[in-house]
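Schema walk-through. Below, the input block comes first and the output block second. Nothing else is stored per chain. Lengths vary across the set, and this one has 330 residues.
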Amino acid sequence: MPGYANPALAQIPVVPDRSLVHTVNRASMSASKRGREGSMDTPDRQLRYFLRIAELKSLSRAAEDLDQTQSGLSRQLAALEAHVGKPLFVRTGRGVELTEAGARLLDGIQPAYRNIDRVLEAVRQREGVTQGTVRLATVHTLSYYFMAEVVASFVSSHEHVNLSVMGRSSPEVVALVESGKADVGFVYDAAVASDNLASATLFDDDMCLIVRGEVQLPDDVDLSGMDLRLVGFPPHYALRKMIHSAGLEPEFVAEAETIDAMLKLVSSGVGACILPSRIPDKLLTEYGLRKVRVQSPILRRRVVAITLANRQPLPLVSELLAVAHRIAAQ
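--- output ---
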């Protein structure tokens, strides 16, 4: 079957899917975590851990966010509680809550650590970082058109920057940015519902129907009057939700998490699919497919760039955002 390699993204290190990451030498990863936990038992580290548990109200979520095992994080917390002489959290059905002593500790140290983080951030801003790593998360569809131009333009003027690109669903992109595991995200606005994130509009994306080249359809179609058999993204993806919110009730005959897999299924005759109209014609031609404009209902989503609201983006991230806005305006 035909493939599609995007030259602009070909040389960019892409973070592998989590299903692959989880298969990589679990024993080695666990040993590495245990080693880190054993060497990070300073009061400062324990207080940082305490702050993260208090923010997330969950030991398991904090352990994942901090790249620690839950048992190791529990030991660090127990050591801090032993030093303080009082329990800092109580377990609840949904996670943990601060005790009175824990609340007093949080009130006392949180402003100080926020000030430390602000000073460190200010120093980094003044130095004007020109090399390093930028972690970018994007919904899968954008990597086939918009992100290719953004990445190519940014990399051409930042030769010493390592750009790590993560392709995910809209909710996953939001989670990566919110947790600090991605510096910037490109996502559909409908998925952004967090006060912790700042979003900037880039452009509106109109959808089209993609069918095999020999399928007889007019140039414009009303999907509400059609018996649709679709290949779609999984239910939690923004584009899948958009179809239902538009009042359409198609039969989803297959699901795929990547554009290539979806186009391969459509090419084999399984069904049609709905994707952004900016998908390159060259890619569709390789699969023997074509676009059909959707006249009704209007299927449109706004693409936004998201960053953490309470943190000034680093210079490199700001430069990447400037490139994205420039290309979006073209």
